[in-house]
Structure formats: C-alpha cells, structure tokens
Amino acid sequence: MTVVVFGSINLDLVIEVPRLPVKGETVIGDRFFAVAGGKGANQAVAIAKLGIPVSLVGQVGEDSFGQTLISGLQAEGVDTSGITINPHTYSGIASIVVDSTGANTIACAGGANNLVREKELEQFKLLLPQAKIVLLELAIPLATVLIAAREAKANDCCLILDPAPIRYELPEELYSLIDIITPNEVEASQLVGFTVDGVTTAKQAASFLHQMGVKNVIITLGSQGCLYSNESESFWIKSIPVSVVDTVAAGDAFNGALAAALALGKSLKDAVQWGTVGGALAVTRNGAQSSLPSKDTFGQLLNQQILLE
Fold first, then answer.
1. Beta strands per DSSP E along 62-212
2. What pTM was computed for the model?
3. Choosing from 246, 252, 270, 296, which is the catalytic residue?
C-alpha cells in the first residue's frame, strides 16, 4: 500500500531579508537561493523521507525547471509516474521572501499547476487501488480537487485535505468527503469566518467544521501547538521548542509526517504527534524540500518527545 499526493509542484525562488517589506517598499536581501517546492511535492518528499512509499500526481511545464523538479523528486524516492509534462505552459514558480525571524510572504505563479485536469485525474485513478492515504491541497483547480476527493472516497482511502491556499469558498460536498482537515490558524479563520488564535477559538472552529461534515479536524497554531478534534473528543498537543530559521513548508512537513504515521497504522493521536515533530524540524532549516527531515533525524526527536510524556 502507498500514499498518493495530488497537488502542486513548484520551483521556489527565495530571498532572505532583514525584515519583510511593506507595500511599495524595496528591502535589500542578504541571500538568494532556488529550491524545489510546491505543496504537493513538499508533502510527497516529506513522506518519502520517512520511508513510506508515495506517489505524486501533478503537472509541470516542458521547461528546464520541470525536468529539474521531476529529477529531484525521483532522487528523494517519490514515484513520479503520475506527473504529466505540458509543452504549452511553464512550471509553477513561487517567489518567497523570508525575514530574520523566519516569517515569510509568498507569491506564486501557478503555471502548469493551474491546468491540472483530466490527464492528471486519470493518473490519479490508476494509483488509487494501491492507495491507503490520499493527500489533497488547493494549489490546483478546485473542480479537480473535488473530483479527486470523490474518487478517493469511492476507493475507501483516508482523505486528508490541507486547505491551502484558500482561494474560494469550499463546496459543502467537499467537507463531507474529508476524513481529516489540517488548516493553520490563518486558513481556519478563512474557513469559519472568525479569528482563530488560540485554544478556545480553535475549538470553536473545529465545531464549525464538524457541522460542515468533516470527521476529524487538526488546527495548527505554530508555537502554540495544535488542536485535534473529532465529534466526541479533542486534545491539545504542545509545540516543540526549536530555533526558527524559516517557516516555509512547515505545514507540508506536518501533513507528510501525519500521513506517514497513518500509513503505518498509528493512532490519530500518535499521528498528530508525528506531524508536530515534522513541522518543528522543518522550521530549523532553510527552504521547502531542503528543510524536510530525514528518517533518522525525525526518529531522534520523536523518541525525545515520547520519553518526556
């Protein structure tokens, strides 16, 4: 059995600056680097690095970036047979500005990611009979996400939705298909229409999402930790104190580790702990896929948390 990730593939162009610019301002950066990214690709690599078989479905352009991105995924052990190459567009690009505290702003030109439709859905369907867990996100067209969610449920897969980036109101049908939704505080606020900034508001948001039809809700709040909730219980998991270098891909690391744990048959509570460890390690290094932890590094920090309980 494997995990299937259906989502975006980007090249990230990163500039480090002393502070984030305000509207109309130019801030001179200290360093530039280019790394592989895209929410779908990041999550697939996070899973592969933890030793779990994973396939990625998505699209890149027929350009040098696209081939580089596919080669990088293959080098990390991701099955790329579900990735199509479109000769009529460019590969996705993300422009990321990171300040000295690790905070960031991101602008993305979706390119091939915006054209993920029938061909990719056919590839996705071919992979589902061997899938146990499916991860979806919203950097590809919403219509495609909804069809993929229907197909995942028809194949009895556990469906995880990372609702980012939120670009539109989600259809009610999609909520009913989701087994686990994993917004951060900003995304949760956008989904529910009020500010989510702590334990109390996270519980209120989880209740709202349950009413919409989601079975399990995990809301991450950075240094405050995260809330897990289903319709009968909830628990709070504290964050792991680390030195933050760059928060890019922290959510992807969380989702990847969460899916990896579930693929191994772990309980949801244990899986949330795995996600917390993955996210904590990702913020200690620069970049997206370059920040995702190896199996050994992950295991060391996970064992430390177990010993503390």
1. 79-86, 92-98, 104-109, 131-137, 158-162, 180-181
2. 0.92
3. 252
